[in-house]
Fold:
Amino acid sequence: MAIFKRNLMRWNEPIFFVPRMRTRSEWRGKIILAIVVAVVMSAGLMAARFGIDAGGPRLSVPLAILAGMGVGVLLVAVRELVWFQRDISIDEKNITCFANAGMMTALTTVPLAGIARVIIQRPEECELKFGLMTVKALNGIVLVGIPGSVACEKLAQVLHDQGVTVELKDWEPVTIRRSTAPMTLEEVERTAPRVTGMARIWEFDQPADQRVLSRPVIICCTVISLGPLVAALISSIGIWIYTWMHRAELDTLSVALWIGGGFGCLVVPFVLVAAWGDHLPNLWIRSLMRIRLRHRPDAIIDSEDTESHYIDIVPRKNWGKVMLMSNSDSGFLKITSDALLYEGDAERWQVPLLSLMGCQVEKVSRNPGAPDTDEGAFSYYLVLQAKSRTGLWEAPIMLPPVTLAPSNNRNRERMAHQLRNEILEKLPEARRDHFKNLQQQVNV
Structure:
């Protein structure tokens, strides 16, 4: 089950986009509102001037008028601060525009199902410094600003993929199969080379609570991963409480050092967990898997074999989702001269190399709205495909971080391609070239 709803795209509008896009009639209404407020305030101040008890200072008529005008303009201007910069997000159901300034907020939600058409204009087309998205919904028109950092073509494609009618000059939608959708044998056979042999898969019959990846283990992994952050937060709060209780005994420099130390206790573990937070849980599960395999007399792989790779199997349906544990199995993969051997917690394979129909690395966004520079934005899966007795067999492989290298886009991509290249080296040259050509067609 996914924990959070994912944004397909997200960005910040150009500063004061809403006021800048107002029409003359809309500005006329704002000016009239300011005048009305100014008249009411001026009347109240002049009432006090001419002896009516209004509870305020007695000002001269000119000062009363000027003060009323100032208050009227100020109140209207303060209300405009909420439009400083809206946060725009698109998910699978809505386009959401959210703005806030202190206690003032403004929220506009447009259901995708209620959109008749979206018109996207590039900056040069609308003669502005930013792009423009006009959302024609059933209940009205909503204008959204598009900064230069957001590609109009990508935005159009995202909306098109959700079934929205989009207009963008010199753009044609690309119809692609969703990477998280299950593939069929017929789809793979269109591009696959001729194969010999079949993949043989055995599933181990064991209760879920007796598997290595049981619920207690998953909970323990979560505690191991997030435990340092919780301990750091408690330590920081303790340091700050100590500083507050002894503030009278400490000089200014000591107080500053104690407060800075509290922030340091919080920031340093956060950075370490962001880069290496998954390492300890993965190392622990790997050790549990080695113990399990040592007690399995018919295992086809020695878990201590240095030529084997520790891998996770992540079904397509779990790609890009935020879950406590996205992999369905973990185990060890060994590449021999003629076959791929796998011994895992839930299943075992024997896949002849010449039976492979697919061996591509697929790049999947963890958050499709994130920029390419986001270190946590992408996962890389080596997708193996072959024909089995039951139809198409597929195993999306991810190499979990178990080394000192930080878990970032570059290292995840490097490890996936290294494993793929190791498999391709065992194939005949013609078949190797075929898979290399296929890789260029994958949307990475």
